[in-house]
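Batch manifest, entry 17 of 40.
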Amino acid sequence: MDELTIGAFARASRLSQKALRLYDELGLLTPARVDEVTGYRYYTEAQLERARLVAWLRRVGMPLVRIGEVCALYETDTPAAGLAVGAYWAQVEKETAARRDLVTFLVDQLSGNPAGKGVEAMSLPGRNTVMRYAAGSDRGLVRPVNQDTAYAGSRLLAVADGFGEDGARASGAAVEALVALEGSVRGADVLNGLADAVDRVNRASGASESGTTLTAMLWTGSRLALVHVGDTRAYLLRGGEVSRITHDHTLVQSMIDAGTLTPDEAASHPQRALLLRALDGTEAHARPDLRLHDVEPGDRYLLCSDGLFTVVRPDDIGRVLRTTADPEDAVHELIALALAAGAPDNVTCAVADAVVADAVPARSGSARLDGAFRGQRFS
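Output type: C-alpha cells
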C-alpha cells in the first residue's frame, strides 16, 4: 500500500500539517506509521476519506470531541453518522436563534426603544396584553413527599423539581429567588437578574446533597425571558400548534440529539432520569439556558415537571391546552390525567394565557404551590 508523507497527505486532505499533528495526539486521525528514528508521520490513501470528513466537520464548526463521535459512527453506521451531524446542526441553529433574540433585545435597549422597558401589561399597538395564570401541584400516588414547587403571578411563571433528601427546600429556594425579581427587575436587567438568581441558588445548594431543576419565564413588557436548567419543561400553544420551547438537559436527550436513541426508546431507557445539568452546587452543571421570546395575544404557556410529561401522552397534553379555556381548569385537568396514569412522581403545572386586557380582565394576586401547601388553592 502506497504511503503518503504528512505534507502530501495534508495537501490531499486539505488539512494543515499542524492540524494533522493535533488530530494524531487526540486519537482523531492516527497515522498509518510513524518512523521510529525520525518520528515522521506517514498516511495511506485509504485514510483520506476520514480526513476529508474531519475537514468538512471542522469547517462547519463542530467541536473535536463531537467530530470523533461522528467519525466513529461513520465507520460502523453511516446513516447514524448523518443523523448525528443533523442533530449537531439543529443545536447550532437553536443556539443561533437564541443569540439573535438576545441581540435584538440589546439593540432595543441601547437604541432607546421602549418596547423592552418592562411594564405590568405587555404593550402592543393600540392594546394591552396581560396574563391570566394558575398553578397546581400534587404529591402523586407513589412518592412520600412533594419536592416540586410552582409559582404563577402577573410577571413570573416558574416550576422547580427538587431531588435528594432536601429537594423540597432546594426547589422552594429556586422559585423564591425568582419571585424576588418579579417586582424589581425590569428591561435590560432581566436576563442578568435571572442569571444572578440562578447562580445564588446553585451556590447555596452546594452545602447539601440535594438540588433542583428549574424552568421559569419572567415578562419584560413585550417579551418573556426564559431561564431553564434540567428537565422541567415549557410548552407554547400558538395558532393551535403546541411546541416545546425548552431542551431537556438529560443523558437521553443528548443521545437523541446524537441520533443514537429514538424518543420512543428514551421513554423506557434505564437512565432516562439522569440529569446533565441541575442546580446542585456544581458550577459545571448549573449553566442555564437563557432566551427571549416574543409574546402574541392568544399565546398559552405551560410549565411542568417531568411528573406530567413522562406519563401523559403529548396528544393529551395538547388537547387540554387547546380545549380548556381557563388556566386553572387546564392545570387541574392535566394533573388529573397524570394521577389517572399512576402518577409515580410529583406532578406540577403552571399555565398562563396572554389575553387582551379589555377583553378579559387580568387576574390579580399570585399562586405559589409546593409540598407544604399541597391541596390548597390560592387566588
